[in-house]
């Protein structure tokens, strides 16, 4: 059979009008359960990060090479299958992770992901410059939310022993502009320049824009989510 004839057959509608084939849940239940103990990864610069190198390098960085199986899903995504949820959560907690000087965004598998799946990366950010009278969980969250979703706040007003900077884990959109400074003004009238220092920051974007002129007003009636 010639290649030309075979190509013609591929584009014919043969079988398209046949009755729908029903596939029972039992045929794929096992793979669904297996996938739920896995992470999906998205290298932020696939031009510089070879996907096969990513699935080889990360399990070795995690010291889990014998307990994690990596595989390439398509041109943009990779998957890591874990033997235990303990290892999976440890990897997420110790992130973010870098291969070839670029971040790899990681997120736990979802059977039916939302449209914004793997569109952000969690980074620990040191927030500096908040005047002491205004250092509170509410004020910190109010400021941190301007960078992205607040995932975790490492601060307790009664037990924290240092106030020179506050550490917050923030989910930052991978296409968002990064901000390193922001002017704020409190309802009392006092102003301050807040600085943001991103821990483990390598090259998360190809263009960094500094913008310090925006003013954030922190008022008594502010709402938090």
TrEMBL record:
This is Uncharacterized protein At4g02000-like. Pfam families: DUF4283, zf-CCHC_4. It comes from the Eukaryota. InterPro entries: At4g02000-like, DUF4283, Zn_knuckle_CX2CX4HX4C. Coiled coil: none annotated. Residues 172-206 form the Zinc knuckle CX2CX4HX4C domain. Residues 33-111 form the DUF4283 domain. PANTHER family: DUF4283 DOMAIN-CONTAINING PROTEIN-RELATED, GLYCINE-RICH CELL WALL STRUCTURAL PROTEIN 1.8-LIKE.
């Amino acid at each position: 059979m010639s290649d030309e004839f075979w190509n013609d057959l591929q584009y014919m509608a043969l079988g398209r009008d046949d009755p729908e084939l029903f596939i029972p849940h039992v045929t794929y239940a096992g793979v669904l359960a297996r996938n739920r103990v896995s992470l999906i990864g998205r290298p932020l610069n696939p031009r510089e990060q070879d996907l096969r190198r990513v699935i080889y390098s990360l399990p070795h960085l995690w010291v889990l090479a014998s307990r994690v199986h990596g595989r390439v899903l398509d041109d943009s995504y990779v998957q890591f299958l874990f033997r235990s949820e303990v290892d999976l959560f440890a990897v997420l907690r110790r992130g973010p992770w870098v291969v070839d000087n670029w971040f790899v965004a990681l997120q736990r598998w979802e059977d039916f992901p939302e449209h914004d799946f793997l569109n952000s990366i969690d980074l620990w950010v040191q927030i500096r410059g908040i005047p002491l009278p205004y250092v509170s969980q509410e004020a910190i969250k109010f400021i941190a939310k301007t960078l992205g979703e607040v995932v975790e706040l490492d601060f307790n007003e009664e037990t924290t022993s240092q106030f020179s900077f506050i550490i917050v884990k923030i989910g930052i959109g991978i296409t968002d502009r990064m901000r390193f400074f922001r002017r704020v003004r409190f309802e009392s009238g006092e102003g301050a320049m807040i600085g943001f220092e991103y821990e483990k920051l390598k090259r998360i974007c190809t263009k960094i824009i500094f913008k310090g002129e925006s003013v954030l007003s922190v008022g008594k009636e502010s709402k938090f989510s």
